[in-house]
Amino acid sequence: MAFQLRYTVDNQDITVVAIGLFVAPNKLLLELMRLGVRVILLEPITGAHQGRGLPDRDRGPLNREGISIPWQILHRGMESLVVDFHQEAGKQLVLELIKKTHVLVSNWPTRMAPWLEYPHLVDQCGPQTIKIQIDGGYDGRAANDYSMQGATGLAHATGEPHGRPLTIPAAFFDIITGLHGLNAFHVGLRRLAETGRGDCYRIALEQVAFQTLAELGWYAQAETTGESREPIGDSLLDAVHGHYRTQDGTYVTLNLIGEGVWRRLREATGMHTLAYNAQGHEIHGDHARYLVVEEIKQQIANWIAARSQAEVLKTLQRAGLVVEPCRDSVEAEQHARSLPCFHQVTDPDLGPIWVPGPVIEARDLEPMPLSGAPHPGEHTYKVLEEVLGLSPEHIATLERQGIAAGPVGRE
Fold it and tell me: Which parts of 127-171 fold into alpha helices (H)?
């Protein structure tokens, strides 16, 4: 029998109110929606998209029609409610929503919305309220994934030797932060169930970024040896790693970590003296191999350059080595279609696209299909009717007063 997970408070399905967010909170919310949680996105009447909505709706890259691709992917399944946050009546409308739904996810700092600070939420919405606050810097300053790549030492270490720091063009600190938010959500629900009280769970991207690298030993290395992670290009300190060009002009990525892989690599390739020193002794240990890594990589590069990508992959994968084709994003998209978590949908704005679903597989857990990303105010009337129980006449009055707004272009 298929099982659809349900989150409830007081025997009512949980709905999450979300405000002012991009990437980190979105990862949290996407995973919740895949498990059946309803998410209402609050957008300001004034904004970048046709005079209303959030400015991140214009974030690149754009498709040929000028629509933000990451926005559409990161907001799938949400419902959009447009509100004027500057009017007291608009703020009160938001607080009534939070009171009904119990959960707020936000990355708006205090300076932008002091009325959403947790003590005020408790006063207005009750002690059951759960808030998950995603911040940039721990001290409240603006920060994002790419600034943290510089701040943590990551960009310095990923640069080319003797060159400038380089940014990794994937916001993985953001994604990890979102997963910490998912953990906070479950902790909050457990505490609420046991005590009847909510809390504010604050997660700073800065702390997540530094925690991530600290747990990989970066800062303990600096503390105990006085050594910095110097720029070493695509080399690694704990493995012989590289991207190698094949005979047919493509690339493979080969990662050799630990002692056992070297015997298998030598047997598979016939390079019987690979990673041996001048005295004819095998070099043992990641650090010792790192000291002569360029020489080792050059031998591997020569062997791979004389063979096609298909031959290299077949030979090395058969030997149980960690090797993959090095793809561009177009090639990677084609491969993604073969993965079970991907499925094709027809997005109202992007057209037919392949999108990922849950990556946790279980025998009878039924995934929740997500709709396309909402247009500004697309669900204003639905949310106000269903969640707050407002009449159509009341909603029409709010719209005339400029407190709330429905979809753009409504007659």
Answer: 145-151, 154-158
Is 229 domain-assigned? no
For helices 24-34 and 172-195, angle between their N-to-C axes, nearest 10 degrees? 60
- Residue-wise pLDDT for 357-391, tens only, equals 988 887 777 778 899 999 999 999 999 999 999 99
The enclosing H or E element of 114 equals none
| Cβ atoms of residues 145 and 173 within 8 Å | yes
Q: Which CA distances in Å does 26 have to 1, 21, 29, 106, 248?
A: 30, 7, 5, 10, 40
3-state class of 389 per DSSP? coil
Retrieve residue 187's tokens: 């902790």
* CATH code at position 270: 3.30.1540.10
| Beta pairing class for 240-245 and 251-256 | antiparallel
5 in Cβ contact with 158 (< 8 Å): no
DSSP letter for 60, please. S
Q: What is the pLDDT of residue 52?
A: 56
Residue 337 one-letter amino acid = R
Extract the tokens encoding 288: 């010792």
Q: Which domain CATH number covers 128?
A: 3.40.50.10540
Given 301, 326, 351, the domain boundary residue is 326
Residue 67 token pair: 């629509």
Take residue 226 and report the two structure tokens written for it.
Answer: 């006085």
- Going by the DSSP 8-state scheme, the letter that residue 116 receives in this structure is G
Give residue-wise pLDDT tens across range 38-91. Answer: 999 999 987 644 545 787 888 889 999 999 999 999 999 999 999 999 999 999
* Least confident among 49-58, 124-133, 191-200: 49-58
How many whole angstroms separate alpha carbon 172 and alpha carbon 24?
9
pLDDT band at residue 411, thresholds of 50, 70 and 90?
very low
**Among candidates 42, 44, 67, which has minimal Cα distance to 57?**
67
Residue 407: asked if its preceding bond is cis (omega within 30°), the reply is no
Residue at 111 is within a domain: yes
* Residues 281-332 pLDDT 10s: 999 998 899 899 999 999 999 999 999 999 999 999 999 999 999 999 999 9
Beta bridge partners of 272: none
**Per-residue pLDDT averaged across 30-34, rounded?**
93
DSSP label at 57? G
Through-space distance between the first and last CA atoms of the chain, rounded to whole angstroms: 45
| pTM (predicted TM-score) | 0.90
